[in-house]
Amino acid sequence: MRISVILVEMAVFSVLFTIMCFKTTSGNNTTQVHNYPPDIQEEYFKTHERIPTELFSKRVVAVKSIPLLVFAVILDIMALLAGAKSFTQGFLFAFGMMAWVGAYDTFFIDLMLFANMKRFRLEGTEHMDKAYNQKWFHLKGMLFPGLAFVFSRI
């Protein structure tokens, strides 16, 4: 497999993931509300219509399934472009790419951007700085279900 191609793909995958995050979060966009800490959700739903946010609710399963399928196809194409010649190489590539995007999401998107950019604040929760800076909440999310998804590619 070609390392230079893999490095370019890591950058491209990060950009695609960042675009998805920016498009599905902000002010009144509740597509990703289930990914917000519970205290932010509670404050938001005091003034907005409550929608299902439980992990296995039909809405959350649907919202998570579409990107999951899209990313699976993207990862398969990326593995082929990187030169994967066997199932094992493809698997290791996909595993590594998902571990990379999980770390990128947690340490850059969640802990730096989400915690500090007003753009990610849900309407009515703009004052909740401490709640948006819950590092342990995001780290737990990376470990489970984040790593569980990575291992599900086995």
Describe the protein in words.
The longest helix has 30 residues. The radius of gyration is 17 Å and the shape is elongated. The relative contact order is 0.15. The protein has one domain. By secondary structure, the protein is mainly alpha-helical. The two termini are 20 Å apart. The model has no long low-confidence stretch (mean pLDDT 85).
Brief descriptors of the model:
elongated, 0% strand, mainly alpha
Concise description?
The chain is an all-alpha fold and 154 residues long. The protein has six helices and no strands.
Portion of residues within helices = 55-70%
- How far the N terminus sits from the C terminus, by CA atoms, comes to 20 Å
Query: Unreliable runs, pLDDT <50, ≥5 residues?
Result: none
Query: How would you describe the shape?
Result: elongated
What is the number of helices? 6
Order of helices and strands: HHHHHH
Number of strands: 0
Q: Please indicate the count of domains.
A: 1
Classify the beta-strand content into a percent band.
under 5%
Helix/strand-derived category reads: mainly alpha
The biggest sheet amounts to: none
Tell me the Rg in angstroms. Answer: 17 Å
- Give the averaged pLDDT, no decimals: 85
